Amino acid sequence: MTDLTALDQAHAAMTANDSDDAARLRFYERLADSEMFLLLAAEAEGDQVTPELFNVADNQFVLIFDREDRLAQFVGGEAPYAALSGRMIASLLAGQGIGLGVNLDVAPSSILIPAEAVDWLHATLGQSPEEAEARIEEVGRPLGLPEALLTALDAKLATATGLAHSAYLAGATYEGGARNHLLAFIDAVPGSEDALAQAVSEALTFSGIEAGALDVSFLRASDPLAAKLAQWGLRFDLPQPEEVQEVGLTAPGMDPEKPPRLR
Fold first, then answer.
1. pLDDT tens digit string along 140-197?
2. Any idea where the SseB protein N-terminal domain is (predicted)?
3. CB 152 within 8 A of CB 26
4. Is the dihedral of CA 219, 223, 225, 228 positive or negative?
5. What is the pLDDT of residues 77-94, one digit of tens each?
6. Second label for 181, Cα 20 to 30 Å away, from 96, 109, 144, 190?
């Protein structure tokens, strides 16, 4: 297949200009957010998986692919795999001195990522936003935000399927006169707040904007402030899940509540 994936496109933007740090960050963000297929040495046993390890110039790598057919093309047929997010794979490999071979020989995004970069990605994804309380007195239109941040937010929120109905980006004035930009999620699913705040933090990080440049809040649609945000803010509609169907899991890692363990 010749269809380019989001990872292919991010890789192409990164390699087009070696000095473009923003494009490099966007590539790693796409890698973290994408579902990847990790090539295994044998079928998983329970929650334990054994990745196939490859030695390249005295360094060890596992192989991951962003489509099943690309994995099959690489091995020349069927092979055991675990379907995991890139962030989960980075978490499993962090500190083990193992790098990532991404789409090797089967896609435009073919690349070897050294172990140090895997450790960096895991550490970057592990940065948590700070919590604070402040009373909002006034909201207005968002002004002066970099296009890179708006693009990063749009891409990141597109991965937050079903976690909230929508979000509004606006300028906010707080009690005491402090001002900042605010991203308010409307009707967030209870328990999703931390994940949504983390998503915004990552959008800031991977767009090259310093952390703390954007505040996050959670409102119900019936909240009077939500109406003001709808009037003045920039709206993001989050994807909503399709009707749930009962399906069997075909590979370890498909259940985010039961992540696999490497051995």
1. 999 888 888 888 899 889 989 999 999 999 999 998 899 999 999 999 999 999 999 9
2. 8-120
3. yes
4. positive
5. 999 999 999 999 999 999
6. 190
In sequence order, what are the residues at sequence separation of 6 or more whose Cβ sits closer than 8 angstroms to the Cβ of residue 152? 26, 29, 203, 204, 206, 207
d(CA 211, CA 127): 10
- Environment class of residue 220 by beta-carbon count within 10 Å: exposed (0-12), middle (13-18) or buried (19+)? exposed
Place of tokens 């909002």: 136
Tokens of 10: 């991010």
